[in-house]
């Protein structure tokens, strides 16, 4: 596909199909995960400790598998193309999510989640595909739009999943209320598989294994190796800072309003506001990236995120917290997409798959690190401490980006 200002109809069709695929993938994940502990509790006579343990494993296994397997899939993507990887991820996700709905016990769910993680990567491969097909002058906007797809799905998913669980729970009774959303998600992912297969065109010529450069040679030949490493670190830290807050949001809100009867409702608002901020700001920030360069936007996003975490740790109002998290969501639109845009501009086309797969491994590692960090620190100290530490990690990230990216013009 020609990299010109006049983008073809095939390019736009691929963009819309992949955007919708990322939206459904994000929605499918968030639609089933919020009530996974309730589903597990319905599958047997488990103790509270066992339910918490299995729920934690079901959450973590996906990221563990992603971190381990992503480099292999990246190598295959560089030989066979990103479209095939999107087909693989959506097809297996359709199967594993449907099978999870048939779970007889908690261990079965953990195993299915591990398999799903091992074959996952639709959003990352769709992003890499669009990065390779997009003219550089539009890469900032495209990376931002691809991020909004998953973010929008994550916002819609819990609402849809909760509504479906309640409806079918009342209609069919028992665990079927929790099983039906898995079947619906599986069907939607199968539609994503079909649309990706038949509607997405990728201008890619397969490369034989013998002609591929070893990863160490690619890394050694990168024009800005330090900058690539800085983006890997940024992906990990930004993802960790996002998920470190998630496990404690409702508890933190409860500590701010202990006598309220609307804690769940307010906590839901506080949890949703970052995604809303990201959605509203992504397009504007994406265009700004294309004007001034993603590295400048990334630096502003990191320092803004650091500043916003300070009043979060000090506030006594859940509504102030929600407002600050809304602003944090806007800042986030200038962090992860900017890091991906920097990778796009500094990675040769023949190694896109492997570089983005390593980035996915760092992202999965950040998800594991963030969840452990938030739960551990808030358990040992208080809820506010995690905000201080998370803000500090973003400041350290800012220093790393400034230090390693000072010689880059991108």
TrEMBL record:
Residues 14-409 form the Major facilitator superfamily (MFS) profile domain. One of its GO terms (cellular component) is plasma membrane. One of its GO terms (molecular function) is transmembrane transporter activity. It is found in: Cell membrane. The keyword Membrane applies. The chain crosses the membrane at residues 16-41, 53-73, 93-115, 180-201, 222-243, 263-285, 297-314, 386-405. Keywords: Cell membrane, Membrane, Transmembrane, Transmembrane helix, Transport. InterPro entries: MFS (IPR011701), MFS_dom (IPR020846), MFS_trans_sf (IPR036259). It holds the Pfam family MFS_1. Its main location: membrane. It comes from the Bacteria. It is a multi-pass membrane protein. PANTHER family: MULTIDRUG RESISTANCE PROTEIN MDTG. This is Major facilitator superfamily (MFS) profile domain-containing protein. It comes from Lactobacillus gigeriorum DSM 23908 = CRBIP 24.85.
